[in-house]
Specification:
It holds the Pfam family ABC_trans_aux. By secondary structure, the protein is an alpha/beta fold. The protein has a single domain, classed as Rossmann fold. It has 3 helices and 7 strands. It has helices at about 10-25, 85-100, 155-175; strands at about 30-35, 50-55, 65, 75-80, 105-120, 120-135, 140-150. Strands 1, 2, 3, 4, 5, 6 and 7 form a 7-stranded mixed beta sheet that branches. A hairpin with a 5-residue loop joins strand 3 and strand 4. The N and C termini lie far apart (about 100 Å).
């Protein structure tokens, strides 16, 4: 009759713990990074204002943000911005202002309070801007853009966020060059 040797748990448990920790810490898959298409444009024309763009604190992170409920937001772990969002937004805004022929020396302050997807399948951009011109001109207003996503997925969200941001930038350009100025 053969005797089975008892397994010594004090030898197996550390190995099992190491394997489990390795599995728990390994990522679910490779992360994908996104750039706003409008941020690839350059702004070399006109006397653009000095743009000071800030985002709400929860947007100041690498993950693309989704609003999953009325008061809940989550930053994606696998879907991230390739560079800080405020830099992309400021560069895209400058390019759009230049394309619209804005010639407005002064300071343009922009606060983006929402730049995210929603559980309802929308891209939402919200905030406010204020312009203080070198010659004393002042302008500003609140902005809100909602864009339905044409399909599921983060690429569609990023595309709609970009289109919405272009619409915001065009609105700012109109506010800087319109008859009220």
């Amino acid at each position: 009759m053969s005797r089975k040797r008892p397994v010594k748990l004090f030898l197996v448990l550390p190995l099992l713990a190491t394997l489990m920790a390795g599995c728990a810490s390994s990522p679910a898959g490779p992360s994908v990074q996104y750039l706003l298409p409008g941020a690839a444009q350059s702004a070399l024309r006109g006397a653009l204002p000095d743009i000071r763009l800030d985002t709400a604190g929860y947007l100041d992170q690498s993950g693309v943000v989704m609003q999953t409920g009325p008061v809940e937001v989550r930053a994606a772990r696998q879907h991230q911005w390739a560079e800080p969002l405020p830099r992309q937004l400021a560069r895209s805004l400058a390019a759009r202002l230049a394309r619209n022929g804005v010639n407005a020396p002064g300071r343009l302050e922009v606060l983006v309070t929402r730049f995210q997807g929603t559980a309802e399948g929308e891209a939402v951009i919200e905030g406010q801007w204020r312009f203080l011109g070198d010659q004393g001109a002042r302008a500003g207003e609140h902005f809100l853009e909602r864009r339905p996503l044409p399909r599921d997925g983060y690429p569609a969200l990023v595309e709609q966020l970009d289109e919405g941001w272009n619409a915001v930038a065009d609105g700012i350009a109109n506010g800087l060059t319109g008859p009220s100025r």
